[in-house]
Amino acid sequence: MHWNSVSEFFAMGGYAFYVWGSFGLTAVVVVGEVLLLRAQRKTVLRNLRNELLAESNPT
Amino acid sequence: MKKLGLASVMLALLRREFAVALRQKGEVLTPLVFFVVIASLFPLGVGPESALLLRMAPGVLWVSALLAAMLSLQRLFATDYIDGSLEQMALSGTPLGLLVVAKALSHFLLSGLPLVLMAPVLGLQFGLDGRALGILMLTLLLGTPTLSLIGSIGAALTLGVRGAGVLLSLLILPLYIPVLIFGAGAVEADAAGLGFGGHLSLLAALLVLSAFFAPLATTTALRISLE
Amino acid sequence: MNTRVIHWFKFASPQNFYVLAGRMWPWFATLAALLTAVGLWISFFVAPTDAQQGEGYRIIFVHVPTSQMSMFIYLVMAAWAGFGLAFNTRLSGMMASALAPTGALFAFLSLVTGALWGKPMWGAWWVWDARLTSELILLFLYLGFLALQASIDDPRRADKACAVLALVGVVNVPIIYFSVKWWNTLHQGASVSLTRSPTMASTMLWGMLIMVVACWMYAITIALLRVRNIILERERHTEWVKHALE
Amino acid sequence: MLEAGRWLYVAGANGVGKTSLLRMVCGLAPVESGQILWNDQPIQSQRDAYRQDLCYLGHLNALQESMTVNENLVFTAALGGVAPEPGQIDSVLAHFGVGGRGEQLVRHLSQGQKRRVALSRLALSQARLWVLDEPFVAMDEAGVRMLADLIAAHLAKGGLTVLTSHQQVPIGNMPPQMLELRA
Question: Are B128 and B54 in contact (CB under 8 A)?
Answer without folding.
Answer: yes
